[in-house]
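Is adenosine-5'-diphosphate placement plausible here? Inputs below.
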Amino acid sequence: MTVSPFSDLPLPQALLSNLELLAYHEMTDIQAKSLPLILEGRDLIAQAKTGSGKTAAFGIGILFKLNPTYFAIQALVLCPTRELADQVSNELRRLARFADNIKVLTLCGGAPMRPQIASLEHGAHIVVGTPGRIRDHIGRGTIDLSHVQTLVLDEADRMVDMGFHEEISGIVSACPTRRQTLLFSATYAEDIRKASAAFLQNPTEIKVEAQHDGARIEQRFYDVSDKGRNAAVAQLLNHYKPVSTLAFCNTKIHCRELAAELRAQGFSALALYGELEQKERDEILVLFSNQSCSVLVATDVAARGLDIQSLGAVINVDVSKDTEVHIHRVGRTGRGQEKGLALSLCAPNEKKWVKLIEQYQKGPVQWFDLAPLEAAPGQALQAPMVTLLIMGGKKDKLRPGDILGALTGDAGLSKDKIGKINVFEFITYVALHRDSAKQAYAQLSEGNIKGRNFKMRFIAAT
Ligand code: ADP
Ligand code: MG
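Reply from A.M.:
I modeled the complex. Tokens:
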């Protein structure tokens, strides 16, 4: 593999130094392929799997052209969901840290209009949002897109799936014709090409093959009967005991059924699928990422775009008939330099899909036996953390430090017993080591946080 340092690109020194601070020492494949073209100002259709660093690719492109002393919306990024928009905004803010005063504004549905309008009046350089809400602002005349130089359609395939085509058309017409348009997606380039032809000018198409590093990710296949699938998942979890597992099913119904069966056996398992409300989805993802939930059972679409740092294992509860989807699933484990484990359950009628996988990866897959897998001695797999929900958040001026202080003050908990703290508008989630949970609850509910008493309760993935 060739190493491509960011310093190969004509970027300002301050931006390069900031990338070093973020520990982005070299470009990912998609960045190395797309950034030279992006910096030249070309339109692009870029396809690469989740977790490949697409945000920084367009983020660096946006910042390269941006003039911080000019107060106008110079870049617009459209994302399919609020959650992805938040993720993109956070990454853009990290990338923009090298310069003072670059304002990134997130505009999504589900939030009140008025504060968004006030923020727009205040001025922003980059807007990240969902198509419906941006369209609303255009309709009300509260957003001026006439200075946009860079328009990004992120997770474009999913936006098309979600039926946003009309909104996007409207938004594109509100942007200047002279602009750069960058389209990013994880799959299905063909549909996207058709749907977006009108938005792009002579685009270059780039694609990073969804091939993953076979040396780092261990793939194991197991024969199962259709009926034995869910039991096999439990067997694998008890044997390998990964701290965090993403288990993929083809349908929402199967996701819910499997998560419920696992919970009944004492696993901390939750299901993630398309039709959840945003609040439920937020909570599930918080519990999974703070290690209060050890198994997330998800459909492919629902898991798309999520930036999940470290996954001990991926389980393919069924083999996907789409080989790229399979490769994409497997690639979610073993990110960065970590070793990955991908376990696939295959019923007799799915053998034909395994053949396709073997053709794709140009070599046979390895088969293993379920029967000899016994649970490693000790308890059944349990998540190491539990989550305390506090009924107070940003609106109450709570910050993670306040909660940390309240927990560790007055001979309280030691810091290593406290995990992630996620502060939302009205609520906060605090991850605590299972064995310190009671003490933490007592400490917080008997004492106070910043002189105030907040209601709180434990939420569980069981
Ligand atoms: P995608 O949009 O392709 O799914 P993201 O943009 O969310 O991927 O990036 C996935 C993760 O990789 C993020 O946590 C991001 O901070 C990190 N990342 C991006 N570029 C680099 C890089 N060049 N070196 C190291 N980490 C990177
Ligand atoms: Mg992305």
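Short version: The domain at 385-459 is CATH 3.30.70.330 (Alpha-Beta Plaits).
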